[in-house]
Amino acid sequence: MKIEKFILKYFDMIRTIIAVLIGVMVSVLVIYIISKSPGHSLMYFLTGPFMTRGRIGNLLETATPILFGGLAVSIPFQASQFNVGQEGAIYLGAALGTAFALSFHFPAFMYAVIVLIFAGLIGAGWGYIPGILKAKWKVDELVSSLMMNYVAYFLGLYVINYHFRDKSAGFLVSYELPHPVWLKQFIPGTRIHLGIILAVVFAFLVYYFLYHTKLGYEIRMTGFNLHFAKYGGINTFKVIILSQVIGGFIAGVGGMVEVMGIHHRFNWQMSPGYGWDGVVVAIIGHNHPLLIILASLFLAYLRVGGQVMNLLSDVPSEMVTVIESIIILLITAEAFLSQWKYRITVREAALKEVSDESAT
Amino acid sequence: MDTILSIRNIVKVYPNGVVANKGISFDIEKNTIHALVGENGAGKTTLMKILFGIEKPQEGKIIYKGKEVHFKSPLDAIHNGIGMVHQHLMLAPDLTVAENLTLGIEPRKWKVFLDTKKAVDIAKRVSEEFGMEVPLEKRVRDLPIGIRQRVEILKALLRNAELLILDEPTAVLTPQETEVLFKTLFDLKKHGKTIIFISHKLKEVKAIADRVTVIRDGKVIATEDAGSLTEHEIAELMVGREIRFERIPPSPKVGAPLLKVKNIRYRNKENVEVLKGVSFEVRSGEILGVAGVEGNGQTELVEILTGLRKADEGSIVINGEEVIGKTPREIREKGVSHIPEDRMKNGVAENAKIKENLIVDRYYKNPFSKGMFVDWKFITKYSAKLMKDFNVLATSPDALVSSLSGGNIQKVVVARELSMNPSVIIADQPVRGIDVGSEELVHRLLNEARDKGSAIFLVSADLDEVLELSSRIIVIYNGEIVARFDDVEGLTGKDLGPYMLGVKREA
User: Fold this and answer.
1) What is the pTM of this model?
2) CA–CA separation, A39 vs B439, rounded Å?
């Protein structure tokens, strides 16, 4: 009886965990089918990410931009604004942030901060456009933000390739960033950099913002029920725009952090996909900033596991995509496990009925 | 007499844990009108949905014409000769009556093209057979609601319904339209049909039913011959205790007008003039009731008064200040509160906590927040107190609104709207769909607010509610105020009906 109450209370979380387990189980099954030595492949996949210091480092540095992406997605999503322009905001924030850092110079102690704020503002601007289009003319933000990802990509590519390209490098990359802008890699043998601390700080800030500030309350109420928010006197016009602007800001910062922490120059000839990873972890983490930390670590774990497996066994790393897809599918499928919940609800209700009867 | 339908021990639990039917059993005799009565939320509609194949019960049997049946869908029920007329009519407004009647079984030319002429013939045949006249070639959208309902009944008859379920058919009708409906139902009985008539209006039940089943809290309380029970007895069975129908005493003190509305005009997106110059005043210490069939401009008027919609013309003065063009928050800050028509759409965010719902109009003020931060500790204490004062039954202020019953959700709304000493209260259907206990509480609170000097603007589709509470009454029809009654003493629904229908209007 107690366990049933527990299940009802934490149903969403339990459902997520079950979805994750099913995803992993299916991948185990697939590995058994396609691998010649499934035991080894599986071991590399599941325990690989923890086997060396370098790989643990890998896991954390992979999780960092994903976490930024997830936080950037969670704010508009909590307002029920399905802005998926974070990919573009990350890319453009990084590209224009790099251009900015290469063009202007500031005293060392504030150089990095100014660059990050600039990148954030670029992202915020990128969130503002779908926001104002939605609030003013009801343009679907999903469509406009999606389209804007292409604009961001080609714009960023143009700026870097035509104006900041390091012609002495063998690849299409920008000039190297000045050293004061580098985020310190502080654990020897890994590339773990200050960005991960910044990302976690951001997660707590976003949590506090959403759940303990007036604007956070407005965002969540607008997301729960737009009519209710309007009726209660909330300026939903402002909320719709600001939620996307703030999300864009975080995305822009996240993109620049990646450049400043890992590559030290802009080298994305392809859009890196952190915005999309952000959507994935926001969904797994139910748009809750603290759960998104866990979801980002989990996704990074899968990715690194996939890479290790790819390297040391005969199973390709694309395997990981299969798991991701299954998990997302199961979490977003409303009917998944709803019958189970329904049966428990019925039993609970029946029990309550009986105890009410005997009480009277 | 033969039993056409036996319902045995039906139990239905909804996914949110609400037990709507707790073992319902009764029989329905062939060729009778069987009334099913109970308060809102007693489980009548749920039971009928089960009967019609829309919902599946967890337990229980339905025996129809001597055979146990399990309808998988409404279509299944229709094939078995059961027809249902829903509370909200299910017609295609842009199709003609004949097209609506034959929808899904429409006659075709060469199997592809609609044979409109034949459709009209078929529709005509059935309408003549039962003596129910309808304008076959008119579009449904142009018809008054009473006629639309008749179309809905004919639709069921055309599909050979022997058992007709009518779910609160009179809720949207004026007294005059109701009489016409009753004549139709008597005729159908003569034709050998069986009718289940769902209602909570006891006068009607007494007037029309042969037998009555009373449901309370998901259980059958009694099934009796309608003749053997008085209205009062049925009412007491319904609510389980003594009740009274009486007008509340007049206001002790009526003061200056707090809400002055002048010549409000509004055209909707379809360019239909929904409000055609509406003017009225509500004074401190009085309740102005608006009578009218739903959809005559009330919803738009309320939204304009509360700033949710922009009027094309006119003036609204609240506490001496013009509020046209002001935002909902600015209007609320003038001391206006609003109990909305549809509490699930406007009144609450059901997936948010109760405390989050209680502060939507005041979270930004001290002491609910300080600077940019919300003080949840204070809000939790505050909410617990409001919940106690307004008798909201829930485990804690942190419970989700979606876990509450309809009556308790409405109490959350009312607690929020009446707890800031409003000077003007816009109450739109304040007791719709809630249990009698909550209804009494809401009415008492409105009454108290009136005595404390609030000006209350009450919109309700329930004439009895308007008559019980109002100090003055206006009747709205087709976007215009067609009658004003400053003296409500001795006024009845019959007096208002012709105005509500647009048959009569004051010069």
Assistant:
1) 0.81
2) 67
